[in-house]
Amino acid sequence: MRNRKTRHGLLAVALAGGLLLTGCNSGGSAGIDRAADGKGRQRADGAAPLPAPAPDSPEGGKGDAATPGGRDDPPAAPDHLSTFALDVDTASYGYARRTLAEGRLPDPATVRPEEFVNSFRQDYPRPDGDGFSVSVDGARAGDDGWSLLRVGLTTRGDDGESARPPAALTFVIDVSGSMAEPGRLDLVKESLGIMTDRLRPDDSVALVTFSDTAETVLPMTRLGDTGAGRSRVHTAISGLEPTQSTNLEAGITTGYATAVAGKERGATNRVVLLSDALANTGETSADGILDRISDARREHGIALFGVGVGSEYGDALMERLADKGDGHTTYVSDPEEAREVFCE
Hints:
9 strands; alpha/beta; six-stranded mixed beta sheet; single chain; Rossmann fold
């Protein structure tokens, strides 16, 4: 069969249950929207294409390994691997939709087609048991030999809210001055309030705020059956007010320290960053920020989930933080979208 090049492989992933509360680790979108080499193979890490296997010699073996100087090196082992990354982010679609609704064109760098695909239910057939089903379809993208390929992975159906493990969620909330704009901190507070009422008694919540510095305003708190835990969470949320600059590094570092201190065995432990991602104080690069928390992420397996807000939004920083933090990103611009992210 003749190999065909794949120019844009859009990977749409449907996963059972809410991604915020499940153990879904994403390698990000690197390599999904990337050209393959002439043999149709591509690297998920964005590195150069894998070398093609040596052609068969007339005797049926691999090509002659002799070098021009006459020295014979062992033949290279054949490599027939094709790799790609799983992408479950949706932030690009949400931010582009808001930008268009305001009469502006989104920056092309913020438009990632795979995240548009991820934002809609694809209704791929689900497997009967454990594991996942694979749905593949494609089409020619022009007359130059390129094709468009979509690969959809689907887990089995959700067994209901009671089937998921308890959640231990550390919310890292941006309270810098830029969050005073309508649709930012006010939306975050409303969303967290709704979510708090929807979580189960065996779930736990911690709250960390950051502006020029960071503070744990609520350590990990079990919601419980009496209502006292929920009341503490609501009180902490209602007291959030915008203040000064954006030291995102301090927020994430303190957030992970709080999550590690309150980590619960057998629970889904997550750090959830809610921000416009416009970092302007302290370390402002994703790699530099993540270096501060690398041990906490690797040793404790606590993924970072990014929720973006605001008409001006640091899309590139948020996406890289979530990709490198083994999590994913989404974007919310109104209470309905926030309810879907945090409750549905």
